[in-house]
């Protein structure tokens, strides 16, 4: 079978994860092209990953007649336009989350995607492809927890990256804590419950770096949500976990409850030394979700080969972004926000 030739845009930390996975761990795919305005990143793509074509602009890359698909790992604000351009060029598209930062822009993008049903579009909600989350989803779908009543999610980045984020926030727009980080947890809430969020109340605090107040960014945030069937969801998002990368999900139902990664353990090792009894923890997302990233890219290629759309859709991206925007509006206005009267961002 002919390999699917892929071009990638964005070779930052996450971009390198996807690029390496495509080049080395994705059967049926070839990392054929790469796009970045940073020369060192293009040299990395050529020398380390064997990329054939390199580009300084995305427009030039999608004009290549050699490509079958693109993987978009650029800053969030570029995603909608880049998705639309690739789709209109006849390419299959994998885009990292979020699908966009503005509702109208996302809706415009979905119109273009829907107008080309023969092309595959997939959004990077990789937690759906994590073995532990899939195990939990099967339990929920089989009714082993009964009716879900509460979903609680923690998503906290390691404190080692906070200082660099503060510098980034002063020069760029991340989309805000909820769109940048909680978007994964919001997707999990919708995925597990099969319900939409109807209202949110969110708050936040900047403690380690109060200067984030000046750029309307949050170091730590929390949100309480009510879903359409009155199921409750609680999110805690942050950028300051001293022990490492902490992603945890709790599902409480009428017949039982479960927790995914109650402690962010790196492996099954327990260390006994002068520090006491210690369980090593994951320190970053590429480590914690290494297999999930590989699994989702394999699914993208399988969808192209089998001519079927993936479970994760552009609509999932739209709905999750709506909730993230509502959370930020709640923080800004100090009000409870109803999703059906959400002001378009």
UniProtKB/TrEMBL annotation:
It comes from the Bacteria. Residues 133-259 form the GFO/IDH/MocA-like oxidoreductase domain. GO terms for biological process: NADPH regeneration. GO terms for cellular component: cytoplasm. One of its GO terms (molecular function) is oxidoreductase activity. Keywords: Oxidoreductase. Pfam families: GFO_IDH_MocA, GFO_IDH_MocA_C3. Residues 4-119 form the Gfo/Idh/MocA-like oxidoreductase N-terminal domain. The keyword Methyltransferase does not apply. Belongs to the Gfo/Idh/MocA family. This is Myo-inositol 2-dehydrogenase. It comes from Neobacillus vireti LMG 21834.
């Amino acid at each position: 079978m002919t390999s699917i030739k892929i071009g990638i845009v964005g070779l930052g930390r996450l971009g390198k994860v996807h690029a390496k996975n495509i080049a080395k761990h994705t059967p049926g795919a070839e990392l054929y092209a790469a796009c970045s305005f940073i020369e060192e990143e293009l040299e990395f793509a050529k020398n380390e990953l064997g990329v054939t074509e390199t580009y300084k602009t995305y427009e030039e890359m999608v004009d290549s007649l050699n490509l079958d698909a693109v993987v978009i790992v650029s800053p969030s604000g570029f995603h909608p336009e880049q998705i639309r351009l690739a789709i209109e060029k006849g390419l299959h598209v994998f885009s990292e989350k979020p699908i966009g930062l503005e509702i109208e822009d996302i809706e415009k993008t979905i119109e273009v995607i829907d107008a080309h049903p023969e092309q595959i579009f997939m959004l990077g909600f990789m937690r759906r492809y994590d073995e532990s989350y899939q195990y939990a989803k099967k339990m929920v779908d089989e009714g082993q927890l009964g009716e879900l009543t509460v979903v609680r999610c923690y998503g906290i980045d390691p404190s080692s990256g906070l200082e660099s984020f503060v510098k980034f926030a002063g020069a760029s727009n991340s989309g805000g804590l909820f769109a940048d980080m909680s978007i994964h947890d919001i997707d999990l809430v919708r995925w597990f419950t099969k319900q939409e969020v109807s209202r949110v109340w969110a708050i936040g605090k900047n403690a380690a770096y109060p200067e984030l107040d000046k750029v309307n960014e949050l170091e730590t945030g929390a949100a309480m949500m009510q879903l359409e069937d009155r199921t409750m969801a609680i999110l805690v998002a942050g950028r300051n976990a001293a022990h490492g990368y902490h992603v945890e999900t709790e599902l409480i139902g009428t017949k039982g409850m479960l927790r995914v990664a109650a402690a962010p353990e790196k492996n099954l090792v327990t260390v006994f030394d002068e520090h006491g009894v210690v369980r090593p923890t994951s320190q970053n997302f590429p480590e914690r979700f290494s297999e999930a990233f590989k699994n989702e890219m394999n699914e993208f290629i399988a969808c192209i080969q089998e001519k079927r759309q993936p479970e994760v859709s552009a609509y999932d991206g739209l709905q999750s972004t709506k909730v993230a925007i509502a959370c930020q509006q709640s923080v800004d206005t100090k009000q409870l926000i109803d999703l059906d009267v959400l002001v378009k961002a």
